[in-house]
Amino acid sequence: MSADTAQQHRVPPPPARPPLARVGRPRQMLDFYATVARTAVQEQFQYRAANYMYMIGMVVEPVIYLVVWSVVAEASGGSVGGYTPGGFAAYYIVWMLVRNMNIVFTPYGWEFRIREGQLSGMLVRPIHPLHYDLAYFAGWKVIAVLLWVPIAVVLALLFPPELSVNLAQAATFFVAIWGAYVIRTLLLFVLGLVTLWTTRVAALFELYFAAELLLSGRLVPLDLMPDAVLRWVDLLPFRSTFGFPIEALVSDLSGPQLVRGLLAQLFWIGFGWLLAMVVWKRAIRRYSAVGN
Amino acid sequence: MAPTPDTAPGRRPDRAGLARPAVVRRRDVIRTLVGVSALNELQYRVNFFLQLFQSLVALATAIAVVALVFLYTPSLGGWSPWELMVVVGVHTALGGVIRSLIQPSMQLLMEDIREGKLDFALIKPVDAQLVVSLRRITVWPLVDVVVGLGVVVVAAVQAGVAVTVLSVGTFLVALPLGAVMIYCLWLIITTGAFWIVRMEHVAELFNGLYQAGRWPIGLFPGWLRLVFTVLVPLAFAVTLPSEALTGRAGLLALGGAVAFTLVLVAVTRWFWRLGLRNYAGASA
Fold first, then answer.
1. A76 to chain B: closest CA residue
2. Which of A5, A24, A38, B84 suits B138 as a labelling partner, its CA being 20 to 30 A distant?
3. What is the mean pLDDT of chain A?
């Protein structure tokens, strides 16, 4: 792919360190993001059928949770932890949109990037690979949201949701889904970089995804979790990536609660960014390309 | 035997084989294909422990989910916690069968159709469906079969089910039938690659659907029950063995499963041949 980085074999410091994009060029960055996002839209629009297949696989998960918890709600007199079947319907239909916003470059993809030498190409660009991932998947969201709308309509007809939204909630939701997207991108970027140390990453990734499933609000609204679990939830970033955006729209969170949720997201973005930069710096030293 | 997995043909007919009519015995083909795959995988022994770890993580997650549900209700659609764990065990075991015996070969088939490399499988003097169905086997997910069956035994004992010849017998027949049905479904979907070339999301689609099997299909509303019985036969594959073991289903349901399997096998065979006629290699 790239001639100059590929030559080095075991030379410890890579001769051509990529000049990372520094701040101070906001205009150029904006251009870069817009272009990559537009490319993603065009590229993914070609694969409408493949995207839809992916979506249908994804719609099953919330429908299962919705059915199970509706059965539980009906068995225990109409509601569980404040959620009626209609409340669960609202939760899991919004869940789908948030899940779509949540899709980022998979940590499993790093093996491919390294094996196929893609990373070499990324390193010679004058911009950090993280920006590329952020921009590309942000563009993909346009297609994902467009495809989600008809599915949401059908689901709403099959499982009538109970939903009342005010302006503050809607505004918070709009900001929070992007916050969730950025946090999850950063965390999975760091997780993916582990591939530069070991190729046996699947076990670690699955442990991470199991924790995320249980502690993010993906499996069940976190209000239903026992208190002992909730104490852990507050110490971890998962709620900011899943539960909070949904609750912002679906639950009756007060103004201060909404602000606190957004501040938590801001904290995790800062934390994730710092972690990503530190780990990236160490990880990339371990990379050496092979080929010509 | 050369351990080159993807290109290794079935055992080559020896020189004398040229003189004989070109009949290769099915049993030999199966043994060779499975043997080569297994040998290739068994080189990576650390993967056993990683797989065990992953299986336990998945099991712990499943238990957490069941526990959470039963915090709020004593029984879910008539199933007690331990009875539901029987379903979880069956689901885990069958999932292991899928990921080790079914899915790898099907994904290879999809790749080969897309890249026009299926010729290599088709020129072999044995039934093409047999070859494409057994070309790639991953051994380690079989850990899930052991873990899943262990869960079934423990859960059945804890649930205090009455163990009878009928219930265990039905269970033991229904479970392999379930695997056959899932194989048929996978092959039907994969055969679609002869027409729709880009199929890489199909594994996610299937695995998404398969997750529904962790719950008794009777919980779902009527239209979904129909989907999970006829289109994606999870009701037969996962729920029925669990129902059999917990004394909920008898010979009548088993008869239905047998009939459905026979129909599905025939339809799969027909559809596979239809697809094959549509195949054009990428060479020449």
1. B73
2. B84
3. 84
Side-chain-side CA neighbours of A238 within 13 Å: the count stands at 23
**CA-CA distance, B217 to B239, in Å (whole number)?**
6
Q: What is the pLDDT of residue B17?
A: 46
The angle subtended at Cα A268 by Cα A169 and Cα B65, nearest 5°, is 75
In this complex, which of B68, B199, B208 lies closest to A60 when CB atoms are compared? B208
Separation between Cα atoms, residue A208 and residue B268, nearest integer Å: 38
Which DSSP string corresponds to B205-272? HHHHHHGGGGS-GGGS-HHHHHIIIIIS-HIIIIIHHHHHHTTS--HHHHHHHHHHHHHHHHHHHHHH
Q: What is the mean pLDDT of residues B3-8?
A: 44
> What's the confidence (pLDDT) of residue B9?
47
CA triplet A175, A176, A180: central angle to 5 degrees? 125
- Looking at the complex, report in whole angstroms how far the Cα of residue B199 sits from the nearest Cα belonging to chain A: 7
**Residue corresponding to tokens 């499933």:** A213
Give contacts of B198 with chain A, Cβ < 8 Å. 47, 49-50
Q: B-contacting residues of A 200-229, CB under 8 Å? A: 200, 202-203, 206-207, 210, 213-214, 219-220, 224-226
| Model confidence, pTM | 0.83
pLDDT, tens only, B37-84: 888 888 877 878 888 888 899 999 999 999 999 999 888 888 999 999
Q: A64, B65: Cβ pair inside 8 Å?
A: no
Question: Quick check: B219 and A68 CB within 8 A?
Answer: yes
pLDDT at B2 over 90: no
Q: Is the pLDDT of residue A1 over 50?
A: no
pLDDT per residue over A7-39, tens digit each? 444 445 444 544 554 555 777 888 888 888 888
Confidence check on the interface: ipTM exceeds 0.85, yes or no: no
Q: Could B76 and A71 be called an inter-chain contact, meaning their C-beta atoms sit closer than 8 Å?
A: yes
B 231-270 near A (Cβ less than 8 A): none
- What mean pLDDT do residues B245-262 have? 90
Domain coordinates in residue numbering, chain A: 3-284
Contact B195, B269 (CB under 8 A): no
- HSE-up (13 A, CA, CB side) for residue B225: 8
Q: Which amino acid is at B32?
A: T
